[in-house]
Amino acid sequence: MYWSVALQSTGLWVVLSLAAGHLTEQEKSTIVDMHNEFRSKVQPSAAFMHKVVWDETLSLVAENHSAKCIVDHNPLLKELRMGENIYSDHEPFDAAKTMMEWFGEHEDYNFETNNCDEDRICDNYIQMVWAKSSRIGCAAHFCDPTENLGPEKFTLFVCNYYPSGDIKTQKPYESGAPCSKCTNTPACEDNMCVADDTKGPTVSPERPRMTTEPAAVPEEPTHKQVKIVTGVESKPNHGSKMDSISALLLMLVWLLVL
């Protein structure tokens, strides 16, 4: 119940109750599916790579932070033991495009040295393929113009990952034969370690889009990617157990604001 204590201590309960998701179920599926596709095809191959599933509690944390429209990291990440990727764009949000751009950073990343080419960003890629992260939740918010990003509205997209890791000193995964070190998970699926209680659909079928309005498309759209802030690794909970925790968190949030 670590998250329960952490969210209470940080005062996020009331804030999270006011947050509303801005992603369709199809966009959630795209985000999860593309993460797993990329994670299953890393080079060199991973001896242990968790298959990720969607988590609504992480999504609420992401929505709370994206709604601030500040292109910077959530200062509570370390306390909540979460990783984070951030992306801003003046174009209408495109989940597949964002996933491709994050994963494309692998071209500037050297796995052997665990270093990124000079003046390049690789942190988004590293977080995408962080082997021990097993859950993901994201949100997008349509923001007013800011001094740093210019006079046009923009979409701020945030993804949170659990558990996080120390990307500055550790490699995202251990290389080896796929699934050769799935010691704590009984199944291997598409070169990824899968626990019994995390199999099956991660999100529901398509529902109407909740984004309030589309962003204007400038002649020369700007992009800004922000490095990840990561915390201390923690043993993750999985599947029905984690879903129960998430449901309990949301119920307590609702009770606290009555």
Brief characterization of the structure:
With 258 residues, this protein is α+β, with helices and mostly antiparallel strands. The chain has helices at residues 2-10, 12-17, 25-40, 56-66, 77-80, 95-103, 123-128, 239-256; strands at residues 53-54, 83-89, 109-110, 115-116, 135-143, 154-162, 187-189, 192-194, 223-226.
Tell me what you see in this structure:
Keywords: Signal. This is Peptidase inhibitor 16-like isoform X1. With 258 residues, the protein is α+β, with helices and mostly antiparallel strands. The protein has a domain of 174 residues: 3-Layer(aba) Sandwich (Pathogenesis-related Protein p14a). Helices cover 31% and strands 16% of the residues. The protein is built from eight helices and nine strands. The chain has a five-stranded mixed β-sheet, sandwiched between helices. Strands 3-4 form a two-stranded antiparallel ribbon. Strands 7-8 form a two-stranded antiparallel ribbon. A hairpin with a 4-residue loop joins strand 3 and strand 4. Helix 3 packs parallel to helix 6. The chain is globular, with a radius of gyration of 18 Å.
